[in-house]
Amino acid sequence: MTELLAIGTQKGLFLATSDDDRQSWQVSSAHFFGQAVYAVAFDTRGPAPRVLAGVDSSHFGPSVVVSDDLGTTWQEPDRAPLAFPSDAGAAVERVWQIVPAGPAEPDVVYAGTQPSALWRSEDGGRTYDLVQGLWDHPHRPQWGAGFGGQAVHTILPHPADPQRILVAMSTGGVYRTSDGGKTWAPANQGIKAYFLPDPWPEFGQCVHKVARDAENPDHYYAQNHHGVYRSTDGGESWQSIADTLPTDFGFAMVAHPSRGGTAWNFPLTSDGERHPVDLTCQVFRTTDAGGTWQPLHDGLPDGPYYPVVLRDAMCADNADPAGVYFGTRAGDVFASRDEGESWSTVASHLPDVLCVRAVQV
User: Fold this and answer.
1) DSSP letters of 271-304?
2) 51, 71 contact by CB (below 8 A)
3) Range 43-66 average pLDDT
4) How many folded domains does the chain comprise?
5) In what order do the strands lie in the sheet with 314-316?
6) Is the residue at 216 inside a domain?
7) 58 pLDDT higher than 90
8) The domain containing residue 302 runs over which residues?
9) Over the stretch 66-84, which tens digit does the pLDDT of each residue have?
10) Is the Cα torsion angle 329, 334, 340, 342 positive or negative in sign?
11) If pLDDT is split at 50, 70 and 90, which confidence band does 30 have?
12) pLDDT tens digits, 291-306
């Protein structure tokens, strides 16, 4: 088996491969050099793995490119794959998320963009149509911009019911549909927005990332702008699980791909001081659905360590035991082949890491 790790950076996409059970890595030169890559996805539903990347060209604008040969060649449509209707009064600024749908829809791929919009592709991620129901939601004029922009950055299609999708955005919070995207409702009860006059609003939260539990698809973990939460009722309500974390601020949240109750988080000191807690490079893991969290740092750099891990710059693969990966804004990329117990360096001195995705093929 070969492990493939996609590393999207501010200056291109790097592909790292391992053929020795993730003990050593070979890192490619940059694809799309000079262009930011905020979103990458692996689609393993077809006969061959497909790589999809959201490429952000300052000259041509954002696009989604596709490779069916693990990055040897890339294709994109002649016309922009994501474009608002002429009467929408908006233009796509950036692709923040690409997510294949569930097994019942083998050709469907979703994308999330800035400004906050959801898109659906029915040709494997080559071209996309706007999900009009979310765009037309009456709350949309009040969705503000987070520090990094105003975007749909989390898309979680339900694995057993293609009509159910959960999305999250900064700002705006969590929204759900149960009719395939025709109508949407906010799902933020229990998530605090301390920066608003009413800290418990129906919507307007700056949710940073949401991950779905591997065993129960109605259980979620969320990293908020100050706040770490769990939902056990499909997002209907949220409860804090930050008590044993050193801080409740951060960006990343990753759930175990096959074992329930297990997730990883990279806490940062605060929104005002965005660096690792105690200037220590460490990942925190829970194995009891957020009841307790343990620090993991064997093999990671000694302090003081300042770089930040962004919301999509941490992931897990589909191997057994699961591999965990994260990249930093200093261009360091680290890998664990034992679910976080120990770490090794994949690459150093890359450009600012924006996203990482991994798969075993």
Assistant:
1) SSS-SBGGG---EEEESSTTS--EEE-TTSPPSP
2) yes
3) 93
4) 1
5) 314-316, 324-327, 333-336, 344-347
6) yes
7) no
8) 68-328
9) 999 999 999 998 889 999 9
10) negative
11) very high
12) 999 999 999 999 899 9
